[in-house]
Structures are given as C-alpha cells and as structure tokens.
Amino acid sequence: MGIPRPVLLTTAVGAVAGALLLAPLPATAAPARDAQRPHPVRESGGPGTMAAASAAALQKTAGTVGTPAPPALRKDGGYPRRTVLDAPPENPADKAIKLGLAPYHSLAPRLNALQKLSDRVSVEVAGRSAAGHELYLVTVTAPESSHESREQERMRALIEDSPAAAAKDRRIKSSYKTPVFINNNIHGNEWEGTDAALKLIEELAKAKDGRTAGLLAKNRIYLNVTANPDGRIAGTRANGNGFDLNRDFITASQPESQAIRQIAVDKQPAVMLDLHGYVNGTLIEPTTPPHGENYEYDLFLKNSYANALGMEKAVNDLGYTPAKDGVQPPVIPFRDQQEGWDDWPPIFTPQYMAFQGAVASHTVEFPMRVNNNDYNNLPVEELRRRSAINTDIAGAVMRATLDYTLDHRTSVIADQIETFRRGVAGEAQRPVSEETVPGVPGIGPEDVYTTSFPRAYVIPAGDGQRSATAAARLVDHLVANDVRVERARAGFRLAGRSYPAGSYVVDMHQAKRGVANVILDEGRDISADVSTMYDISGWSLGLLWGASVDKVQKVSGGLHIPARPVQAASPTGAVTGQGDLRLRLDDPKELAALNSLLTQGVKVRRAADGSAIVPASAGRQAAVLADRYGVAFTATKEKGSGALARTRVAAAVTPGEQFALREMGFEVLPVSTATLNAGFDWSKADVLYVSSGLQYGALNPAARSALDGFLSGGAGVVTLGSTGAAFNTAAGLLAAKPVAGNGDANGVVRVTNAGGPITGGAPAHTFVYSPLWFTDLAPGVRVEQSYGTGSPLVSGHWRAKEDGTGGPSDAAGRASVVSGTSAKGGSVVLFGTEPLFRDHPKGLFSQVGRALLGASG
C-alpha cells in the first residue's frame, strides 16, 4: 500500500439553442499521468484568488444577481412538471467553451428542448447560485398522474416516518420508485459531469427499449445539471462567493449547498453520484478509513462497494488505455489504498447524503486534467480530447449506477428502510466485518467506526450563559436538515436535571439520528487511528455554535415530555425594560444589529465586558433590530466608557472569513499584497485584518510607507494564523513569538477565556486548523484565551510532528489569543485559532468582531 493521499485540487463553441448532443471531439496524443499533490493548509483569499476570478468572470451575467429565490420544489402534481426556462444572455467568456463543453447559457435552451422531446423529462429551478444563476434540477421518470405522484410521496414519507410499517408495505415493494440523485459540477472547473448528464437525459428521453422503460417505471432519476454555475462560467473551483461547495456540508452557508440539502430532504435519494475531476485513474468511492461513525456503514458499504465494481467495469469497457489514451485503470480506495481518502467528515456531498438515507453514494473523479495550468497551457485540441474522455467516463458511471439500482432495486430500498428503522428503534449500529457485509473483501478492524447514540439532546431555554439567539439558530439548522425537534410545553426533569418550559428536545429515536448526532455531538479524537486526513476532522455545532446543548445518555422508561414538534424556533428578539439598553455581543447576529445601529448614526458606547450600551433614544431602532435578528436588548444602568464606531475593515482574508465578516455587518475592503502595491487609499479603512494573501516584506516601498503611515496613526490590527503572525512580526507590532503546531492538525479544542472585551461570553471551545500559540510575551501583552490543560483536543486530528513537537500537549495551557498595544500606538490582537473558518463556527465569530471593534477604537 503506502499510496500517497489523493487530493481534490483547487482549481466552446456555444451550443446552438435547442441542440441536444455535443459533437464528438477529436483525439490527439496521450497525455502523461496526472501528478498528485498535498492539499493546501489554508484556503487563499484576497484579490487575484478564486473568489476574485469568479467575480470578474461573472460580471457579464451580473444582471441576475440579487433576484428573488424561486419557490421550493413542488411536492404536488404529477410528472412531467415542465418549466419554460429563461435563457441567460450568451456569454462568450464562459470557460466551458474552450473545452468543447456546454456553456451555462446553453443549458436552458437545451433543457427546454428536452422537455419538448419527451414526457419523461421534467425541469424545475431548485434555487439560485451565489451570483444569481438558476440551478436546474431535471427529473427523468415514466409519466405519473397526480394520484400516482401523491402515492409516491405517501410511500416516501412512510419510509422515513414509519420504517417498520414501510418494510411490510406491499405497495412499496412493488411500486415505489427508487430515487437516484446525480450531482454534477459542484467544483466549477471540473466540468464534464454536466455534459454527460445532458447526454444521459436525451438517451433516456428517446430510448425505446424495454429495459429503459422498466428503469423509468421503477426509478426517479434526479440530475442537478450544474451545482456550481458561477464556477463553471468562471473556470474556478469555488462559487461566486469564493466557497468550495463540497466543503460546505454540514454548515450549508451557501445557496447552492442549501439547494442540494433541500433536494436530499425532499427526494430522499437511496443512491447518489457526485461527479468530480481529476484523478488518474478514475477514482471511485468507497473510501479508506476512517469511515463516518454516525451512519449505518454496513448497509452503506454493502451497496457502495458493489456499485463501485460495476462502475469500474463500465469504465474499463470503454477501452481507454495508458499507452493509447493516457488513461490509467480505475481506483477504488477502499480496495486499493490503505488510508488518505476518507469519508469521515460530513462536509462532502456524498457523505452528507448518507445521513439523509442514501445507502450508496460516491465521489467519482475523472482522470484527465483540463483545469488550472493545463487549461491555460495545453492546446485546445488536447483539452477537448481529454474532456471527451472525461465525459465518456462520466456517462459510463452514470449508466452503471442506474443498472445497479434497477437490478438491486428491492434490496436498495429495503436497506434505506432498515437505515431509518434502526434510528427509530434506537438500535445499535452493526460493526462491519466480512460476516456482516459479505462479498466485500479486506474488511478489518481499521474499518470499524461506530458510535453510541445518546437517548436525547436538550437545548435548554432561559440559559443565561448562552444566547437564546444561538439556540434558535441551532434549532432552525436542525430542522433544515430534517431532524425532528420538539419544544416542551411545560417544565420537565430528565436524567436528574430540571428544564423549563420552552426547552428544545431532540429525541434520538428518529430516522435521521445520524445527522442529528453529527450536528450536536462533540465528535471524536481520531488522531491515533490514521496518520493523515483528507480534510477537517472535527465540526461540532453543539460546541461551536454558541448554544448550550445537554447530552442525555440514558433514560429509563422513555422520555414522556409534554412537547410539540416545531417547524422553526420560537422568536427570540426582545427589548426589555426602560432606559439605556445592553446588547451582548456574543453572537454574529448581535454584531450585525450593532453595526446596523452604528450605520444609522446611533451613539453606542462600549461596556467593560465588551457588550454595547445603546441609548434609550434608540429604543425604536432597537425594537426593529430585535425582530429582524432575533437578538435581545435589556435595560441597564451602566453608562459605558468609550464610543463604538462603524468599523471599515481592510481585510486580507480567506473567502470564508470575508463572508463571516459581512455576515456580522462589517464593511469589508478586500486587500492583498498586490492591491497594496498597486496603491490603496487607507483613509477608507479603520482597521486592518490579516490572515491570508498579505506579506509585509513583499510590499514595495510606496505601499509599505503608506501602510506604516496608517499604522503609525494609531490604527489597529487583527491577525490570524501563520500569515497573520508573520505580518505582525515583520511589521514590528506586538512582541509575541508564534509557535506553529502540526500544520495538518484541525479540530475542536478546549480553551480558557480571560473574559473582557474580546473573549467575554465566548464558548469554552474553539476551532483550530494549523494551530498556533504564543510565547515570550512582552510586558503589557494580555492573554485573552489559552488552550486547555492536559490534552486540549476534543475532536479532530492533531498529532505531533515527526520530531515530536507541535502536538496538543505542547499547546496545552499556551496562549491562543493575545492582545496589546503596538509600538506604533494601535491596538493589536493575534489569533492562533480559526474562529471564522469557512463561515462555520458561529459561536466564535464574536471574538473577531469584538477584536475589530476594539482595534478600530
């Protein structure tokens, strides 16, 4: 074994309206095998990065930005459900054109034509991208009357709501259409799944053979034609907000991820494909350890491995060879690799689908690279040859998956029912072995990952230590993920604790207990289990989103709590009392409310604990914001000290951090080494925030002089991570020595907060990615937060480096966040943690928000 870990690398002539198939493309000389490289430690940000590239390329279609979201997917009426799509303006800059692939603007006309071609084809708009482009969901199935569709919905609901009854339902066994979901182009510069999907739709629409008729009579095939139109147009991995969408589960910060989540909830796919590139040979999941511990891995492995074998055969049957075409044989990581391409985190689309009932879901990586440097440097003929091969392979794995689903329809549905039945019954998971999963070779102890689900979770009401706003956000997120939540109508006792009326209860005897546990559990330290991880390893929303969450392990005799199901959290906004008002700044929504007040010119003061004091004269504005953001303003007699001011942030940050800053209502001015060297007007900024893309030593003399003038005027600086710490040292700001932990480390860690203006009200846990800590602090440098003593890692993967240093024991008790006054007179805050990571750890955002407010003062 010992194969290096593979990595998803960052990364046409316009079709005539109504044209259905792409013309075959010519072949040229075979390329060399693609190389693999380690994944980057941190995402990049700032102008010139994928976010900026997306924005520039999308300007030609910017007329769609900000248009209202379409209505939710229909659940009524029969099939076909035809939608006449509006065609976007032709965009000759669409990056797919060079590859001989379908530009985004050609999709609507082609889908309109396909709907006219056959009553098997329906198109709906599932949502809009970050830049406003429509997301097209195609359903291919045999026509259904309204009555037949209602019966399908009844059976779908029964499978989730009453799986024991569903297992005995004869109509389900004979007539339920297996939902298959094919997701394409979630990474915008991994194009070919979209084109293969268009070909497949037409083939199924036109086919006259009995097997196709049987397939469509027994299955519904859902195809997200392009999950990332922004990136498809711009030739970027990310969407228009700069996000890698295949890292956005289970946060779902982006509209594209939310649309896919809703498809999963509404359609309940049993089988799923996610089409990617580029790994040569074609990579087909299932994966290496560690395996997600919260889903029924025995049922999943049984189906995903068998389907992978079918896909492998289909790819091989195409006849591509290394010598003739440069195409290596397919790789199934579970079988062919020891570790390095895991299915542990729920942030990837196929892994998320397993929590929504999929018993086979796969990432498939096409072999022939056509993006990044290859896109820019290879001849067009070679790029088109490669794209044609990738499209061919994508079509083969799609058809093989449909064959598997048709041939194993009864057992696939039975396994989905069994997945949900175990959850409702509260049964233990089945460890995988060659006995429990017959037919899958090579299962060993290294593949066994199970968890013990608690009996329930409680999100208490009236907890003064945590914001009701955070609790409501967490409840709404649970509901959006199809987790069943109830709200107590009266006070109750559970496992020796008393809870007031209004507390939220998640009974873990439910079909989708896996996704509930993924969201609420603290997670697991897997540092000892594998040497390396493909991406992040810890993500607990229960610890990182700012709400109090109690885990109830065992209850004798059932829950018996007087409660009602909730569709949304109860309102939390309020203005209580008379006179001046206190606004706690523990939550991003509270920061957003504050920034709104400051934008309106309200004179807000700073309290000693970091909260905000709002004058009584602004009571009307406070009431509006309490309702809008769900935040609480409470009467106070404290007058506060210094004034808070609207803060304009010059930000050299990642796209996720930029998104989080704007979520808190800050005015963000993106900067980088390049933008400063080109000339930047520092009079527009109040504070500098550096985490990515800015090197002090790389500034030209004019840029450095301008920046030094800004800093010497008393402006504050907030930095994060190694890039930020290096900037602090090079600029001579705060005397603190940064010490780097293992660069591959990430996860949820325990911390001790000093309180006060920056970490007052902060949770007792934070998130780290390539963690730092600070030593050799000069007099006057304040420790705002420290890593916990002992081993601070709660969940994730954090080992010492090869030389034995950089592990969690080295970080224990060390300063993770420090502050002070720089030699140039401004306030400086240094973070060794990742409180804004990918817009995910909501309960940590306020630490950065408070730091920026203090630094600007």
CATH class of the largest domain: Alpha Beta
Principal-axis shape equals globular
- Terminus-to-terminus distance: 57 Å
CATH superfamily of the largest domain: Zn peptidases
Keywords: Hydrolase, Metalloprotease, Protease, Signal, Zinc
Region (Disordered): 30-91, 426-445, 794-817
Signal peptide: 1-29
GO cellular component, one term: extracellular space
Task: Explain what you see.
The protein has 857 residues and is of the alpha/beta class. The chain has four domains: 91-290 and 300-408, Aminopeptidase (3-Layer(aba) Sandwich), CATH 3.40.630.10; 456-565, no CATH class; 574-643, 2-Layer Sandwich (Alpha-Beta Plaits); 648-855, Class I glutamine amidotransferase (GATase) domain (Rossmann fold, 3-Layer(aba) Sandwich). It is built from 28 helices and 33 strands. Strands 22, 23, 24, 25, 27, 28, 30, 31, 32 and 33 form a ten-stranded mixed sheet that branches. Helix 2 runs parallel beside helix 6. The chain starts with 49 loop residues before the first helix and ends with a helix. Residues 1-42 and 45-71 have low confidence and may be disordered.
